[in-house]
Structure formats: structure tokens, C-alpha cells
Design a protein that fits this description.
mainly alpha
Length: about 240
């Protein structure tokens, strides 16, 4: 697993993919941060920034994950992976961790924006300190990291299904959007049990507690479960392919 992780992580920076992703991420993230916090003045709400960011990641993360397995199929190196002295689970995990490291590293670097927020953002009622709550910022950062992990896992699974990188990106966007906005269908469904199931499945409905500075253990377990399920499905895809 370690060898595959290092190989894939290196590939992000020996090809333009990693640099393009980081450039787009920092540009989009910086724009969202400025629009939703600094330029809003005393009316700004940091939760709006994080909410718009998780929707922006619907487009950004598939750019990162679309090559994980699709490129191996296209370059005909998939058989080398499948016959290498590493388990299929280790292979999938190594690729997941490489993509997630690039995402998490980029996001955590962008968190230096918060120093600007505390220094130049609106002050509290006494005028002596920042109006922003550190617990809310920390909770939101944790939530974005967890949601990002779920997005990456979905992207890795979709990439394992096709050798076309564009198809992998579009498929990932569609699947993430489904999980993200599924709870919005509740207003059209009169049957309460169905509404509860949709809310339970929704990535977005579990995000709000973190924006209030509350660490939601059940939401954390849910995001980790999403990662496990989709990585397990990717392993099953390759188990089926190995014995086909």
C-alpha cells in the first residue's frame, strides 16, 4: 500500500494534474472566502463560506480522482497493479490516501486565510477581538475534511468503473450531487419515513451541526461509513475483474 501511495502521490506532481487542481482550488477557495467573509463586513457568516465550499468541491474533487484507476486502464498498467504483491484493499487504499492527501493538504494550507479573518474581519461587541468563534471554525474545518474524504472515496469507486477520465469525473459529480442534495426532495414527499431516510442519507443535512461548533459523532461515523462503503465497492470491482 505504501508503495502505491507514494507512486500516486508523486504522479500528481510529475504531471500537471496536481498543479492544475491546486491552482483551481486556491483560486476558487480564495474567491469564496473573500466574498463570504471579508467583503461582507459585519454581516458575514463563516458558515456560508464553508457551505459554498462543500458545493464547490463537488466539481473540484472529481478533477483529482478521475485519474486514479481510469489512467491505469488507459495506459494498460492495470494488470501490473492487480498482480503486484499487495492486496486489492491495499491498492485501493493507497490510491485513496494519495488523492486525499492532495485535497487535505490544499485545504489545510488555505486555512491560513483565517489569520486574515481574525485580523481584519469584524470585531465582537466590545470591539477588542474577532467576532468569529474558534470552535465554529474548527468544527467546520473538521467537517470539510470528513466530507472531502467521502467525496474522494466516491471518486475512487467511479474511476474504477471506467477507463474514460471524463466519464469518471462526470459520474463522480452526479453521484456526489445525489448524496448532497437528496434531502431537498423532502418537501415533495408526504410520507414521513421516506423523508427520514432521505435526510439520513444526505451528506448536507449532517453538516450543519459542525457549523455551530458542535462535534457530531454520528455524522462523523456516517462520513467514515461512506468512505468504507465506496472503497469496499472499488475492491469488489477489482476482485470481480481479477477472476473474470
Amino acid at each position: 500500500m505504501t508503495a502505491i501511495f507514494k507512486k500516486d502521490l508523486r504522479s500528481y506532481f510529475t504531471t500537471p494534474v496536481g498543479y492544475i487542481y491546486m491552482a483551481i482550488f486556491f483560486a476558487v477557495n480564495g474567491g469564496l472566502f473573500s466574498l463570504n467573509t471579508l467583503l461582507e463586513g459585519s454581516d458575514s457568516q463563516v458558515s456560508v463560506y464553508f457551505t459554498t465550499l462543500i458545493f464547490a468541491l463537488v466539481i473540484l474533487i472529481p478533477l483529482l480522482t478521475m485519474k486514479t484507476f481510469s489512467e491505469e486502464k488507459k495506459l494498460k498498467t492495470e494488470q501490473l497493479l492487480m498482480t503486484s504483491p499487495v492486496s486489492l484493499g491495499g491498492m485501493v487504499m493507497g490510491k485513496f490516501l494519495a488523492a486525499y492527501t492532495v485535497f487535505a493538504g490544499s485545504f489545510l494550507l488555505s486555512c491560513f486565510n483565517f489569520t486574515t479573518l481574525f485580523r481584519f474581519g469584524p470585531k465582537n461587541l466590545s470591539g477588542t477581538g474577532s467576532a468569529y468563534n474558534g470552535a465554529i471554525l474548527l468544527g467546520s474545518v473538521i467537517a470539510v475534511l470528513l466530507i472531502g474524504a467521502a467525496y474522494v472515496a466516491i471518486g475512487v469507486f467511479v474511476s474504477s468503473l471506467t477507463e474514460n477520465q471524463m466519464a469518471a469525473a462526470i459520474g463522480t459529480i452526479g453521484m456526489i450531487l445525489l448524496f448532497l442534495v437528496i434531502s431537498l426532495l423532502n418537501s415533495y414527499i408526504p410520507f414521513a419515513p421516506v423523508r427520514q431516510v432521505l435526510s439520513w442519507l444526505s451528506i448536507y443535512s449532517r453538516f450543519s451541526n459542525f457549523t455551530y461548533g458542535v462535534f457530531d459523532f454520528s455524522a462523523t461515523l456516517y462520513y467514515c461509513s461512506i468512505c468504507f462503503v465506496f472503497l469496499f465497492l472499488a475492491v469488489r470491482v477489482y476482485e470481480k475483474r481479477r477472476w473474470a
